[in-house]
Amino acid sequence: MDASDIAIDPLVRIRDLRVTFRIDKHNSFEAVKGISFDIPKNATIALVGESGSGKSVTSLAILGLLPPENTIIDPKSQIIYGGRNIVGMPGSELRALRGADISMIFQEPMTSLNPVFTVGFQLEEVLRLHMGLSGAAARKRSIALLQEVGIPEPERSVDKFPSQMSGGQQQRVMIAMAIACEPKLLIADEPTTALDVTIQKQILDLIAALQKKHQMSVLFITHDLAVVGEIADRVVVMRNGEIREQGPARQVFENPQDTYTKALLKCRPQIDRRPARLPVIDDFMTGDGRGPTDIPERARGLNPGDKTVLEVKNLGKSFFSREGIFGKREFKAVKDVSFTLAKGKTLGLVGESGSGKTTVGLTLMRLHEATTGEALFDGRDILAMSPREFMQYKRRIQIIFQNPYASLNPRFIVGQILTEPMQIHGIGNNAQERTELAFELLNKVGLPEVSFYKYPHEFSGGQRQRIAIARCLTLKPDILICDESVSALDVSVQAQVLNLLQDLQAEYALSYIFISHDLAVVKYISDQVMVMNEGEIVEIANSDEIYRNPREPYTKRLLASIPKGWHPGQVRA
Amino acid sequence: MPIDTALNPSAAPPREIPHAVSPGLWTLAWRRLKTDSVAMVSLAIVAAFILLMIVSGLGLVAKDWAKEVGINYAPPSWITLGATDAPPPALPGGAAEPSVPAGPTPGSAFNSTVVDPLADVIAELKGGKPADAGAAGADDNKVVDPLADVMKDIRSDQAGAKAGPAAEERRATLPFGGDKWGRDIIAKTIKGSETSIFVGLASALVAVFIGTVLGAFAGYYGRWVDDVLNWFYSVFSSIPYLLLILAVAAVLQQKGTFTIVLILGLTGWSGVFRLIRAEYLKHKGREYVMAADALGASHSRKMFLHIFPNVSHVVLVQLSILTVGFIKAEVILSFLGFGVPVDVVSWGSMLNEAQNELILGKWWQLVAATIAMATLVTAFSLFTDALRDALDPKLKGRTSH
Question: Do B141 and B125 touch, CB atoms closer than 8 A?
Fold first, then answer.
């Protein structure tokens, strides 16, 4: 698709869209600040931005789904669809438009489907409401739709409940519902963010295929530029409610004009490079806007002389669920896992959901009781010792959780969060020393000392993850388990946290067990990578080695599904 | 850190750096509450009632509520009629009440002309001799009046009382009316409010305390602790409420304000238990508790330092819901006669008296008790609703996607 034929008769024309949220009587917040763009017919347009960029608000405005009690859409805003302005359209007309002409796929398929009805019933309901189909005709069409989105055995699956399907299948059902009435515009709001990489790949391919087949337009909303590189015709980059750049995908990816776009493209770890420090947004926004150049590559990988800090042998963990009155069924989440962790090195742990990678981390922390196996730390098995004895070792092995919004107690100020572990373990002789140490650690993780007196809710996600890191550092651990620690963060913030983790590793010779589903991030930060599937180790090797020549078919499949981003003829600076 | 300095009182205070005090959840909730005018009016009313309770409990107002300042059933009137220009203690409303001074203690059996109820029978037994109540104790026929000693006591008491302040002047009307004994209704209502609010608050505290502690243990420890406590709860809640109250009353063996508090407290904890248990179940799986676990925090630290502040808003809302409920429960119990003893006045006992008075057309005691109760309960309920909205955890931190 060329830039020239875009302007002619687009499907949706958005002009000067301005959305403001009322917070209370006196304060309001402008989420979208007068943006204009077109959604062309028969094309995929990607709306890219980090959290708070206004991308989801924009999509909800197109659907007329913004809550009227606290939103003000500027009356001069225009969302022209089929010659009519959606802004200010009465509710009944909007409802007719939704579902029939414009439909939407949400981020979480697990919560978007009603769990008490079969998927067939929910599909038929859409067909009844918008297409006037009934009975056998609706059922036949539902089965055809399930077939189209690639659900196996559609005749049987139509009577399944959502809970009987996997996450990927549920998202397929959502897509079937969205395309049921052959909409002209499909809005997909982060449709793959909650899914594993292999499933993400399938869903992206499905959306692309359906777009071609039905000649519809797709508005694809995402925070991940790499995802849209494969499917988008046009890209719109948003930040803080404004459009920073828009244009054909080729132009945005190959020759980005805006510094923010450049930064976004650079700060995500790439699979084939490993700069010593990831560039962050600030590097681009300050100075000449070209960003840092000539960053030396960092060498990763194990050396023969590395000292072992932790040796795990035959680790196993089973969960039991009750079956019948007396019976119980065993579910082996982790089977016979053995590895060693070297001092000052990073072991990356990758796998899809349900692979047992998180269970390994929690079992090593003894947050789960191990069923079998041992973990030798300084020659002592930390899994077998008494809780009292383990307290000495708890200091030395710490964990950073995935969600920085959930892992900090909302009722503690940061000072309390940081001094509590010191109190428990008797670090520092008195309050004064502990406070000083807390100030020092806040500086270390790049937060001002005033943060000591603030509550977690006053910080952004990246800052909260820094607080969680500082909390672990109070105990001066040898091993830090990072359980999806950067997965919930925006790309730019993720780069900052990864840089921080590497700086700390260099300074304190920390060993990391880095658990993630994001293969690019794991590749970037790890010396050694362990691939897990269904509780077992598939492959374990030096990270450069495993990405260059994967041995096992599963690893190959996993690596093949990494979003490649924009690869036109593989030209790369 | 308050805990820290408490442990090391000798340590030098930690270095302070200049900072603005960050609003915690309670501060934010209070700010939200302040914008709600209904909540603030309700809070003012509730605070006024509680202040009244304290002032009355300290004896600063309504101390001599039991003094018979007016005539019996003095009607409400704002025009002060002195005792002198009042008509002789005629009975407005034409009740067939003897116009003699009331009994010495307000609660005692209302009786003015002391007549031995058995006198006639005894006389008959003695063979038609004219009954002489004074010498009916014992005689030749060995017919003994069992009430003789009692009657003697009553008579001597009455003589003593008559010699006392009985001659004090009493007013024909009172601003808000008088009750059966001529006690000022407004003072009586204040005293009744004291009892009712105290019972409501104290029993809600007892119930919330029991429910929170048991719920915290059941939810936090799970497994057999949870099973045992759940069985206990199920057995407890399978007994009809009124029977349970009667059973507790029977075990405690005495009537009194304290007994009512215990009865309501010991029977009302089950709802709180269920809620707090569910909250602890939810919170113990949260990442911040797992993080505390990973840092080596003990069970009690996790339960009370980490989780409790995060569920305390639920406790507070439960406390106010239960207070309203128990104020009403006390009224019902006293109305049914299981409540406060006769020498204590509460809204319930006032309403209990009012059912007889209403037949006689004496409406003022009913109205006073009803208005006081309705005002407090309505204000308290509205405040509870507003409080729940202000503490809505949805607003704790804006998460983005």
Answer: yes
